[in-house]
Amino acid sequence: MACRVDGISVGAVSSYTFTNVTYDRTIAAAFVPNPPTAYTITYVVNGGSNPAGAPTTYSNGAGAVLPTPIRAGYIFEGWYESASFAGARVTAISASDTGNKVLYARWTAIPVVTSVSLSGPSSAPTYGGSATLTAHLVVAGGTGLEGQAAVFERWNGPGWISLGTVQTDSAGNAVIVVSGLKTKQTYRVRFAEAAPYYASISAELSVSPKVGLTRPTSWKTLTRNKTYYAKGFIYPKHSVRDSNRVKIRAYKKRSNGKYYYVKSFTAKYSYYSSSKTRYKASVKLTSKGSWKLVAYHAADSKNAKTYGSTDYVKVK
C-alpha cells in the first residue's frame, strides 16, 4: 500500500498519525493487488490420453478449462476429484478455486457386438458314446475372443441345464465333450455379457447318436431257398409296434471278391428287457455262395441311421 498525505508521498506505511492538527488534512492510500498464486493440475487418465495443450497449472482468480481426453472403445464420463468417482463431476476449475488439483477420468466401455456359434461331430456318435462340441465366440469382423466364459447348456424338457463353463482359447474356441449319448440331445452355448461385450446365444444344435445293433446271428451254413432266422438286439428299447423296423440287408460275394447288395428282410420286434428289444427276421437266400448279413436301422426322431456289424454265412 502506498500512502500520500496532503498530496505528498509518505511511502508504503501500514498507519499514519496526524499531530497538532489546526487545519484540514488529506490522506490517500493506493492498494496494489497481491500477485496470483499458481497451482498444479494432475490428471489420472485411467487408460486414456489428454489432447496436446491440456493445462497443467491454474491461478486463483483465473481458473482453467478442463480438457476432454480420449480412449479407444470408451466414452468419457467426466473428471472427478475422487478415485472412486464419488461426489460431483468436475466440469471446470473456477476463478474462486484454490489449491493443487488431482482429477480422475471416468470411462464407460462402448458395448461390442458378439456372436457365438456351436458345432458338433461330423458323423453320428455310437450308441452310448460321446461327442465333442465346439463353441466359437467372435466380435464383428470375425475376430475370436480369448479368455471369455462360454456356458454350454442342454435342453432338459422344462428348460436348459448347464453342462459347465469353458474359457475360450486364443482363437475364440471353447470345447466340451458330452458322453453317454443314447437318444437325440439338443445343446446350445451362451455367452454372458462381460463389458464391453454384449451377451449372445448360439443357435440350437441337435446330436443324434446311432442305435445299438448287435450282430444278426444265424446258422453259418444255410441251404438255398430255405428260411432261417437272423436275430439280435436293438438299443434302446423299441415298441413292438414301431414301424421303423430293423432290416437284415443281404450281400452276395461275386467273383471279383466284392460283396453286392441283393435284398433286405424286415425283422419283427419282441420285448426283452427295459433297455433293449429283440429283433428277428426270416431270411431266405436263393443262390449258393458266400453271403454277408448286416443289420440296419433307418434314422428316426431319436437316433441316426445305423449299420450293425456283419455276420458271414455260406449257402449250399
Describe the fold and architecture:
This protein has no helices and 24 strands. The chain has strands at 2-5, 8-11, 27-30, 38-44, 57-59, 74-80, 101-109, 114-119, 129-139, 149-155, 160-167, 173-181, 185-191, 200-201, 205-207, 212-213, 221-222, 227-235, 247-253, 259-266, 268-271, 277-284, 289-297, 306-315. Strand 10 and strand 11 (160-167) form a beta hairpin. It starts with a strand and ends with a strand.
Defining traits:
mainly beta, five-stranded mixed beta sheet, 47% strand, 316 residues, five-stranded antiparallel beta sheet, 0% helix
What would you say about this model in short?
The termini are far apart. This protein is mostly beta strands. It has strands spanning 2-5, 8-11, 27-30, 38-44, 57-59, 74-80, 101-109, 114-119, 129-139, 149-155, 160-167, 173-181, 185-191, 200-201, 205-207, 212-213, 221-222, 227-235, 247-253, 259-266, 268-271, 277-284, 289-297, 306-315.
